[in-house]
Amino acid sequence: MPFRRLSLVLALVLAAAPVAGDARPPAFAIGTLPPGPYDAITDVAGVRVGQVTKIEGAAGPLVPGKGPVRTGVTVVLPDADPWTERVAAATLDLNGNGEMTGAHWVDEAGFLETPIALTNTLDVGRVDDGTIDWMIRKHPEIGVSDDVPLPVVAECDDQGLNDIQGRHVGPADVVEALERAAPGDVERGNVGAGTGMRAFGFKAGIGTASRVLSSESGGYTVGVLLNANTGSRAELRIDGVPVGRAFAHELLPLVPKAAAALHGRAADGSVVVVIATDAPLDGRQLRELAKRATLGLARTGLTSHVSSGDLLIAFSTTHRFPRDPKAPLPVALVNGDDVMDALFAATAEATEAAVIDALASARTLSGARGLTFFALPVERARALVERAKVSLPTNR
What percent of the chain has pLDDT over 70? Predict the structure, then answer.
């Protein structure tokens, strides 16, 4: 690889990498509920996240099957071994122009027994293969003397910045992401499945956030991780402020003539939302939680376009269905309108914050066809939000 091209690739990788150290404060203080220590889905005890980011080749003309590559895979595990310790779960499709494999069985069974993997549209099959490879390694009896898994793999379309036809995410990348999966802080923005994603006309990708209920409401935590790849510039609102309109004529994507024909899902994209909680909820209650996540999406301005695949999955880490047939089934559930209302509020708020986190964490990136999506100018956007708050009337 020529030195100039190698330097560019290294620069792009470094731009996508998070700064090491303690969890950083959020760029925008969304809502009123407090976040967990990492303001991430991993604030729900036991949840693990792993990612593999693939950035190869200099930005420029698309060579189908070769590059440039701007893609990856992100995995979420509800616990260390979901095949053995299945967790209550439910799915929801806000708009169905997308794919989440395994969703039918999750809703039929009421539980999740595989990792959740996020990737691009044309790599769904390969990520499914990698998930099965990893699960067989951990449980060699699968398909021999044990049942077979139906992996949960959800996609967004990254063909704008990425050579999606090349299907550059392979089974080995998924195994690597699953082996890397860990609690603690989570990489955000141009990483994993979010590497080639954009939203509201800015660079976006992986975003995550959490909210913690008061002790009176049970002290439960709700965490959200999502892949943001949708929304128009005019729609964007941050904490209720129409920030997108302020940037209506600047920092617009650089779209060469070769890329001007992008339409449909390539133009409007999708969003996949993963919701975790330690509140003991069953499938019915978790579906209700997922419904409230759509309210958080709406607060950011998203309207779920016809060409958008907006898919959600929610799970409870404490309402479990052990595979051991002799183990007792769970019986304790949240029972109280006040607690459920608090969980609904936390879910909507964490989802809203996760979308904004995806924008605030992402960095400017160029890719296939010479497309460039610019990062949200966080400081300027924050000033707009703060100025709007100052002008609000106060109760005196």
Answer: 90
- From CA 87, how far away is CA 318, in angstroms rounded? 7
Please say if the pLDDT value at position 336 is more than 90: no
Residue environment code for 356-372, b if the CB has 16+ CB neighbours within 10 A, otherwise e:
bbbbbbbbbbbbbbbbb
In the chain, what is the straight-line distance between the N-terminal and C-terminal CA atoms, in Å? 66
Is the distance from CB of 290 to CB of 79 less than 8 angstroms? no
Determine the length of the chain: 396
SS3 151: coil
pLDDT at 11 over 60: no
**Does the global pTM surpass 0.90?**
yes
Write down the pLDDT at residue 322. Answer: 94
* Residue 110, CA distances (Å) to 115, 283, 284 in order: 15, 5, 8
* Burial class of residue 17, CB neighbours in 10 A (0-12, 13-18, 19+): middle
331 pLDDT more than 80: no
Please return the burial class of 46, using the count of CB atoms within 10 Å of its CB with bins 0-12, 13-18 and 19+. middle
Q: Is 106 exposed, middle or buried (0-12, 13-18, 19+ CB in 10 A)?
A: buried
* CATH code reported for the domain at 46-390: 3.60.70.12
The H or E element spanning position 203 is strand 202-203
- Given a contact cutoff of 8 angstroms between Cβ atoms, the answer to whether 154 and 310 are in contact is no
Q: Percentages helix, strand, coil for the chain, rounded to the nearest 5? A: 35, 25, 40
Question: Where in the sequence numbering do the catalytic residues fall?
Answer: 270, 308, 310
Give the model confidence (pLDDT) of 60-107 as tens digits: 999 999 999 999 999 999 999 999 999 999 999 999 999 999 999 999
**Residue with structure tokens 């499938």?**
283
